[in-house]
Amino acid sequence: MSRLDSFIRRLEAQRRMLDWAAAAIEGRDGLVLELGLGNGRTYDHLRETLPGRAIHVFERDVTPNPASMPPVDRLVEGDMAQTLPAFAARHGRCAALIHVDVTTGVPARDAVLFAWLPQHVVALAAPDALVISGWAIEHALLETLALADGVPDGRYFAYRRRDRD
Ligand SMILES: C[S@@+](CC[C@H](N)C(=O)[O-])C[C@H]1O[C@@H](n2cnc3c(N)ncnc32)[C@H](O)[C@@H]1O
Prior knowledge:
This protein has helices spanning about 5-25, 40-50, 80-90, 105-115, 115-125, and strands at about 30-35, 55-60, 75, 95-100, 125-135, 140-145, 155-160.
């Protein structure tokens, strides 16, 4: 498969997983946390899919498409290694959905480069919160879930935050 085909399939899987997660948290309280604003594409999709839901976006290099700039009070600028624990200290286990989209595009590299991230995700996820990610997140308090229909195993990852600490 060419890298272009692989990229397109990843984006299709990402959209399915975002839609699946948005439907799954309907009726549940909690923030949505978008980890990695980038160009703002997935943020834009989430805010369209979840109107009225507070979506907080974390990014160190804030250069999205101008149409996808989050409001200033929903943008957490800086290195997530620092901003995630600071946000957790202020808001606790506040999130109904966390979308992890910090990636180098190489999942094996991400697991090493972002080894510090799972503990912060767990600290922010409310009981039964959903966590979806483009790479496999390993943590004892994250239970692996089946993916949305049509998303092959390994193309995206979904977890439920177990309700114990
Ligand atoms: C794949 S892009 C996000 C794509 C975006 N969700 C979209 O749909 O356009 C990953 C983003 O994570 C950001 N990032 C990577 N490591 C970070 C860190 N430690 N702290 C904050 N942002 C980080 C990068 O600057 C990059 O913009």
